[in-house]
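Students often ask what a holo structure prediction actually looks like on paper. The answer is less mysterious than it sounds. You provide the chain, you provide the ligand, and the output is a string of discrete structure tokens encoding the 3D arrangement of the protein together with NDP.
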Amino acid sequence: MDLGLTDKPVVVTGGSSGIGLATARLLLEEGARVAICARGAERLEKVAAEFAATFGADRVLAQPVNVLDEGDMTAFAAAVKDRFGGAVALVNNAGQGRVSTFAETTDDAWREELELKYFSQIRPIRAFQDMLAASGEGAIVATNSLLALQPEPHMVCTSSARAGVQNLLKSLARELAPAIRVNSILVGLIDSNQWQRRFEAREDKSQSRDDWYANLARTKNIPMGRLGQPEEAARLLAYLASPAASFITGAQVEISGGISRFI
Ligand code: NDP
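The corresponding structure tokens follow.
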């Protein structure tokens, strides 16, 4: 299947690691031109250099950006417009989860988490909306979490914020149609830096990486018996971002190895 992405400019937030990195790489492999952003300039530059060497410097743009910062996002959008002339798709992927129960979550933590989850969608969408609409095949795809539909008490504010974002995306799919399609993926557990950080913080330091991950998959009762790989989420994101998904909007696709317990 041809995704129809040859030479098309696509933006991926949080493109320096994990799911965003795998998505940016796959989009480049599919012939797209790709703009990535993240806060950490060093890791971003390393990724950009690797991409430029493999795919050509003219097909890659990388800019240090906090997606929550309006000025950063405006400058990033201007750089994308300047370099690529516009954008056909925006993959809103930047972010991280917060592990805390209701008892542990302070008011400030609630505000921080709600701001991260909502504004990591709102700011990039505002910045790129006109370019996406003008492209004639605009698409937004959000990396959301299965927690939106299946909350976990140990991630109470992330679950709640994810549910609200899912609701927002559904509204946007109506408001922005037909110029821009809006879809999301609902991620279960994908092996990325987030899990690497939790592995490194494990209590029993004698436990190997393989054992820790196998135990995690068992504890979480993942029917596929393992965590997903970033490349598996990337294939879904790239498809939904591409003109190949031209009649799909307002959809949410689970990618969890079968972990959900609802129909
Ligand atoms: P990683 O930590 O590997 O990657 C996160 C990326 O987002 C990094 O590039 C990071 O770079 C960037 N980022 C984070 N905050 C910001 C910000 N404010 N502005 C700009 N860039 C930012 O994690 P994943 O690949 O796992 O996460 C991707 C998305 O998937 C996240 O939204 C995450 O919450 C979601 N998700 C992941 C799950 C999983 O199991 N992996 C489960 C459910 C949801 P930097 O830190 O330098 O800014």
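Residues 13-14, 16-20, 37-40, 43, 65-68, 93-97, 143, 145, 187, 189-190, 192-194 surround NDP (CB under 6 Å).
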